Amino acid sequence: xxxxxxxxxxxxxxxxxxxxxxxxxxxxxxxxxxxxxxxxxxxxxxxxxxxxxxxxxxxxxxxxxxxxxxxxxxxxxxxxxxxxxxxxxxxxxxxxxxxxxxxxxxxxxxxxxxxxxxxxxxxxxxxxxxxxxxxxxxxxxxxxxxxxxxxxxxxxxxxxxxxxxxxxxxxxxxxxxxxxxxxxxxxxxxxxxxxxxxxxxxxxxxxxx
Length: 209
Known about the structure:
Glutaredoxin; globular; alpha+beta; five-stranded mixed β-sheet
């Protein structure tokens, strides 16, 4: 029954939530989506996961509040494209760690004391060049098919581009640009970026799969 399906708390523009939604969508795992906004978090979400970040899946007594864990949870139920076969854990860790550190200080430099925007852009580019080398002669990070590594990493590369699209599109990382554009324009990504009204304001849940 619908009211027994897991709940997904999500924020449309959060890259962590994006990658979780893509895994849920490709696995066709039905969840009840509750769209939230981070500056006004629902008490129900905070009661389930006090750290207050998205995504959060509440499946009965189980709470999953790490995006990669949500991805693995969904794909363990159904993995039609064998995403788990391309689980480059070290590359994903580098994206989530050092690259995300520089991304935040490049894109949101005014939020950090003494953050040098140009310096962090330069440091972030080192990771993008690494991706560019991996993409030589192949459309995705692990070969001919998209896998977990692509989906886990690309929302953050997208954020890096958003900080200055003209600059990003002009730098010599043609493989990354092609890869990013392909993922951004994919039917899968477009489907998970649909806008929903805020659950806290409307009480409306939406079947998402």
